[in-house]
UniProtKB/TrEMBL annotation:
This is DNA-binding response regulator. It comes from Micromonospora arida. The modification 4-aspartylphosphate is found at residue 55. One of its GO terms (biological process) is phosphorelay signal transduction system. Transmembrane segments: none annotated. The lineage of its organism: Bacteria, Bacillati, Actinomycetota, Actinomycetes, Micromonosporales.
Length: 223
């Protein structure tokens, strides 16, 4: 079955470019388009895509609010891949909080965009070290004047020492393969740890684990 993609952008030319790229790529198909977030949410419910390729700045409803609606709707099983630029760094943190599963930059090479879609469709979150660095910077900016710590999420105390270590690696933007190499364990072992982290922390996906790691103070970024 091909990966079903809904393209969401307020610029018709951008949507057309994505459609041509996706429709000519094996294993991917475009099931629809939307020019704003509100339409995207309706299309998502009607067309049941696997992935939404979502712009942030749009009229009527922006990509962040649309992502929040989709993540909160238990009847929708689609994942959101945000299209962003370094000029919109402040939105990365908000998009993760809203439920986005990953990010691609607008200057991403076509082959990398296609790979990103397949990664997210496969159940992984796409948080490259470049994006994670921006996320950390935004987190530091938001918390630099905070006087009270964020309440630790339920389930944090239930993590084993190794699960905490894996969570730190996830928060650093490391892939499962890189984590396996770091701890000299099998890839399946890492996948098991990540699966248990998702369950214990009630996280939607890997992206939410990153937010959790920074918000609860398990990972303290350099200021």
């Amino acid at each position: 079955m091909p990966v079903r993609v809904l393209v969401v952008d307020d610029e018709a030319l951008v949507r057309a470019g994505f459609r041509v790229l996706l429709e000519t790529s094996p294993g991917l198909t475009v099931v629809g388009e939307a020019d704003n977030g509100a339409t995207a949410v309706r299309q998502c419910r009607a067309l049941r895509p696997d992935i939404l390729l979502m712009d942030i700045r749009m009229p009527v409803m922006d990509g962040l609010e649309a992502t929040r609606h989709i993540a909160d709707d238990g009847s929708i099983d689609a994942r959101v891949l945000i299209v962003t630029t370094f000029g919109e760094d402040e939105h990365v943190f908000a998009a993760l909080r809203a439920g986005a599963s990953g990010f691609v930059l607008k200057d991403t090479p076509p082959e990398d965009l296609l790979s990103a879609i397949r990664v997210v469709a496969g159940g992984e979150a796409l948080l490259t070290p470049r994006v994670t660095t921006r996320l950390v910077a935004e987190f530091v900016r938001r918390t630099s004047g905070r006087k009270t710590p964020v309440t630790a999420p339920e389930g944090l105390d239930d993590l084993t020492e190794r699960e905490r270590e894996v969570l730190v690696q996830v928060a650093a933007g490391k892939s499962n393969a890189e984590i396996a190499d770091h701890f000299i364990v099998s890839l399946n072992t890492v996948k098991t740890h990540v699966s248990r982290l998702l369950s214990k922390l009630s996280a939607r996906d890997r992206a939410q684990l990153v937010v959790c790691a920074y918000e609860c103070g398990l990972v303290v970024p350099e200021r």
